[in-house]
Design a protein that fits this description.
257 residues; alpha/beta; five-stranded mixed beta sheet; four-stranded mixed beta sheet; 7 helices; 34% helix; 21% strand; AMP-dependent synthetase/ligase domain-containing protein
């Protein structure tokens, strides 16, 4: 019987193959599997350095982007728990989710701290660390700019960890249409099994390129749009949000199928 995968071992594209294309910059950002793995490992080290360890919830309040992908995977690799949030939430909504999962750190876009965005105010209320996460074009890397350490203040640097299939990798919430939203924890084993099912259902191969239009704080966007293509060794085009005026241009320019 094959060994269970984790979100680390499930990235199976050829090193030189394209993994991610971000069309929304002055020039499209094209990332190979080799560069993606290297970037995630580097960001994992940054999370470990501020005290993120096994079971630490990492809330991600950014739009669809390369930095979202890197921080999401790095949190899971570090045996932390990725907790994606809708970046358009109001402050009281952020407060609910940050308190509910007991966020250790909240990742926000560049400039959010100075502008005191709703996510920042909510994180401060519950003493979560706050860090801006963004693509640093000068350094050609995903930056982790810590603004407040909050509850991580004084916590020692953690070792870089290797995930286990039974670790909780992701927490999402039910929609809450009939009652208070409930936490749904998903392990690496849960996620990779679903990734395999999606890959087999869609018959995804390394030749396929996905146009990702679902939000990555949503389970459909995460599993069908991001994780299943990474398992298949294919690639994805990742605009920050769906745009009817840009969709076909990006779809054809970057040869999505």
């Amino acid at each position: 019987m094959a060994a269970a995968l984790t979100l680390q071992s499930a990235i199976q594209g050829a090193p030189g193959s394209v993994a991610v294309i971000v069309p929304s910059r002055p020039h499209a950002l094209t990332v190979t599997y080799k560069d993606l793995v290297s970037e995630v490992a580097s960001f994992q080290q940054k999370l470990a350095a501020i005290g993120i360890a096994q079971g630490s919830p990492v809330s991600i309040a950014t739009v669809n982007s390369y930095e979202f992908i890197v921080s999401f995977l790095a949190a899971a690799w570090q045996r932390g728990i990725a907790a994606p949030l809708n970046p358009a939430y109001k402050q009281d909504e952020f407060e609910f989710y940050i308190e509910d999962v007991k966020s250790a750190v909240v990742l926000v876009p560049k400039g959010a701290y100075q502008s005191k965005s709703p996510a920042v105010k909510a994180a401060q209320k519950f003493h979560a660390a706050i860090a801006e996460c963004y693509w640093d074009d000068a350094k050609k890397e995903v930056a982790l700019d810590v603004k407040e350490l909050g509850q991580l203040q004084g916590k020692p640097k953690q070792p870089v960890l290797k995930p286990d299939p039974e670790d909780t990798a992701l927490v999402l919430h039910t929609s809450g249409t009939t009652s208070r939203p409930k936490v749904v924890p998903l392990s690496h084993r849960n996620l990779t099994r679903t990734m395999k099912n999606i890959q087999q259902t869609y018959q995804l191969t390394p030749a396929d390129r996905t146009m990702l239009v679902m939000p990555l704080f949503h389970v459909h966007g995460l599993l069908c749009g991001l994780l299943a293509p990474l398992l298949s060794g294919g690639s994805m085009v990742v605009p920050p949000k769906f745009s009817a005026s840009d969709f076909w241009r990006d779809f054809t320019t970057h040869q999505a199928n």
